[in-house]
Amino acid sequence: MIYLSVVIPVRNEERFIASTLEALIAQEYPRERFELIVVDGRSTDDTVEVVERVMRANPGVNITLLDNPRRWSSVARNIGAKHASGKIVAVVDGHVNIPGRELFSSIERAREEKGALCLARPAPLDRSITPESKGYWIALARKNRLGHSGASYIYSDFEGLVDPLSSGFAYDRELFEQVGYFDESFDAAEDVEFHQRLKAAGVMAYTSPSLSIPYFPRESLHGLFRQMWRYGLGRFRLCRKFPAALSPETLVPPAFLLGLVFWIASLLLAPGSTVAVALSLIYLLYFGIVGYEAFREVGERARGKTLFVMTALFVIHAGLGAGFLMGAAEWARDRYKVPLKDEGEKMKVAFVIDRIDSTTAGTERHLTDLIQNLDKGRFVPVLCLLQETEWSRGYQGCGTHIIGVSSFLKPSTYMRILSFARFLRRERVDIVQSYFADGNKVGIIASFLAGVRARVSMRRNQGYWHTRAERAWLKLINPFATLFLANSEGTRQWAAETEGIPIEKIGVIYNGLELGLFSYAGARARSELRSQWGVADSEYVVGIVANLRPVKRIDVFLEAAARVASKVENVRFVIAGEGSERTSLEEKVNSLRISDKVLFLGSVENAAPILCGFDVGVLSSDSESFSNSVVEYMAASLPVVATDVGGLSEAIIEGESGFLVPAGDPESMAAAIINVLSGGRSASLGERGREIATERFGLEKITAEYEALYQSILRGGGENSAGVHRAS
Predict the structure, then answer these.
(1) In angstroms, rounded to a whole number, what is the distance separating the alpha carbons of residues 645 and 312?
(2) Is the pLDDT of residue 465 over 70?
(3) Cβ count within 10 A of residue 709
């Protein structure tokens, strides 16, 4: 009886890997004649723990857990195949349903009775997927003749010899010696590339319904698009390696997508032109064919699903086309990359942001501080703004470039993006670092087109301003970024979870401050400042520095202030900042009857001089990534009371430098403020906060971390992952 090795490449499959392993263990095949090799791609969920639990529960089964440090499936397949002891090596996903107990026996019969060196498996829809699930209708679209290759037998009941490109999954060990292992330069379609070599060697595959392994389809159109994108990307790389694989069927999706772009452009720019009319007829015919196929596929009882299946077919074609074109763009970029700098030559870094009206906001201040403090002997910064402002006209911190983009609805915008790409290439920019949604759209796409070696996409908030359209835009452009950089571990995790960015591609560097600006100014300066505010030296001052915007929840601060004022007599509240909420907040102060307790300072260009007048610093936001204000409070030796959002728990040590309270909870905030004021620990809390700020958030230290990251990128040619830096 043949000894079988089953290789299971996994990454983040904690929900499904146990059932997959248990189904394989339950096969009616002698346990001493098979082994299961799980190759984990550094999962960030509990996949490894689940596998280890299954291993402990089945001591009589040969289960091996191996590490895949590069995470790619091609690498996992090779790690498993090289570790395998079996005559046949089968590759099974960690997220499938093994329907019966005859799979291993069917593999042996096919090998022994048919003499097949390669086995192909049909992949019907798993029967547990019901019409109530979107996945059911997506699966219908995938198995339609417009949804997959006409040469594929993956959805067929055919039994016999087929092209190995179809759906090979189990291989005689001698095949690896004959044609080599999987190509580890592929992160998609690695199996198709391997099967292409089998086909070139004259190997046929045997397929049979008895080898079926039902699959779980994608549960959303977005997930389907990402899957098709990867397939399209793999197709291009396959065609680069094997030009004979380039067929009309392969070229149709990218041609379809390019034609669609030209059609939309012609309708906008020249709606009555011959090109517009001709393309309109072509695409109307296309949508008619797709609509007919969707109508036919859903059957009589589910006509209401026709539009969804039609959309799924469109997403399949668009995803394959986009992935193929992405592969072509990557190839062109790699051929025409900005040349590497010579030894000792300064590195040019372009910072892209939509606009800067002042440096009072956190990101704008971070950016100008970073530019100012970079070592100009090693780096040449360039500030690139989508829109010119009065502030930018007077800025002299470095060279500036105005891109001139104000709306993505204007056709001229896309010509300006191309012009910006030419600027980046002409200036031999090494790194582009982009901020905010519009800055990322322009900066990442233009730098990709220009062949810039490193494209850094910043994450400095947790998407409270993101619309669904903005999230969709980000997910579309994220594959073009080389790495991502967050300003807190909390935001790193958030970006991975909400945007689907591989967490190993996200680094962390905290905000930095010029700590010397926040040294205690002395009792005299404190007294003079308080005198200007009309506050006595004997009174407590609870202050907040924030733009008066809804997300900052100054209303919660005011409600907490009313509670504190009712229990602490000698207390005043100072709000430093300006914004759209000013009028409504003043009305709230009156309604709470604390107008004699609250002072609005208005816009403050530099918070450092006023913090010496505070006794407690507060942050009441509903959403933050990593607050500059909190670090400023700590640098000024103030105890901090802040909402537990974003990465604030990474700055504030509960009970040592301040207190964290739930967002939107004025009662908890008031209790924490009273605790600070009446507990006699204000000085010790402030001193500890100053120590933490000095150790971790000094501008000199943070700038050095950016410089080290840039140098690392230069040494790595721009291709190293963002995992090169984690916050210290």
Answers:
(1) 37
(2) no
(3) 22
Q: What confidence tens digit (pLDDT) does each residue in 402-449 have? A: 999 988 878 788 899 999 999 999 999 999 999 988 999 999 999 988
Place of tokens 């105890």: 639
Count of CB atoms situated within 10 Å of the CB of 467: 10
The DSSP secondary-structure symbol of 216 reads P
pLDDT single digits (tens) 315-351: 999 999 999 998 888 787 777 666 666 667 899 999 9
Q: Could you identify the residue written with the tokens 């802040």? A: 642
Residue-wise pLDDT tens digits, 660-703:
999 999 999 999 999 999 877 788 898 999 999 998 888 999 99
Q: Which pLDDT does position 373 carry in this prediction?
A: 93
Question: Two tokens at 403?
Answer: 């891109």
pLDDT above 60 (res 728): no
Helices (H), 489-602: 489-499, 523-533, 554-565, 582-591
Coil, helix or strand at residue 456: strand
In the predicted model, what is the mean pLDDT of residues 693-716? Answer: 88
Cα–Cα distance between 557 and 541 in angstroms, integer? Answer: 13
Tokens in use for 711?
């140098």
Quote the percentage of the chain above a pLDDT of 90. 52
**666-678 and 682-696 are packed helices; what angle lies between their axes, rounded to 10 degrees?**
110
Structure tokens at 606: 């530099």
The CA distance from 585 to 255, in Å, is 56
DSSP-based three-state secondary structure for 16: coil
Spatial separation of the C-alpha atoms in residues 7 and 81, rounded to whole Å? 7
Mind spelling out the 3-state secondary structure of 106-135? Answer: HHHHHHHHHCCCEEECCCCECCCCCCCCHH
d(CA 573, CA 534): 12
The two structure tokens encoding residue 270: 């020249």
348 in Cβ contact with 258 (< 8 Å) = no
Question: Helix (H, G, I), strand (E, B), or coil: what is residue 58?
Answer: coil
> What residues contact residue 652 under an 8 Å CB cut-off, 6+ apart?
630, 634, 640, 642, 658, 659, 660, 689
397 to each of 175, 391, 708, how far by Cα in Å? Answer: 62, 12, 21
Residue 400 β-bridge partners: 383
Q: Which residues pair with 305 in a beta bridge?
A: none
Q: Which residues contact 561 (CB under 8 A, 6 or more apart)?
A: 542, 573, 592, 594, 597, 598, 670
Q: What is the DSSP string of 597-642?
A: TEEEEE--S-SHHHHTT-SEEEE--S--SS-HHHHHHHHTT--EEE
Plot region of 436 (φ>0 → left; ψ -120 to 50 → alpha; else → beta): left
Is residue 157 within 8 Å of residue 122, measured between CB atoms?
Answer: yes
Structure tokens that stand for 179 in this block: 């044609």
pLDDT of residue 725: 45
Note the pLDDT of residue 717. Answer: 47
Which pLDDT tens digit goes with each residue over 148-185?
876 677 777 888 998 887 688 999 999 999 999 999 98
Q: Give alpha helix (H) positions in 360-450.
A: 362-373, 390-393, 411-426, 437-450
Per-residue confidence band for 618, with pLDDT thresholds at 50, 70 and 90: very high
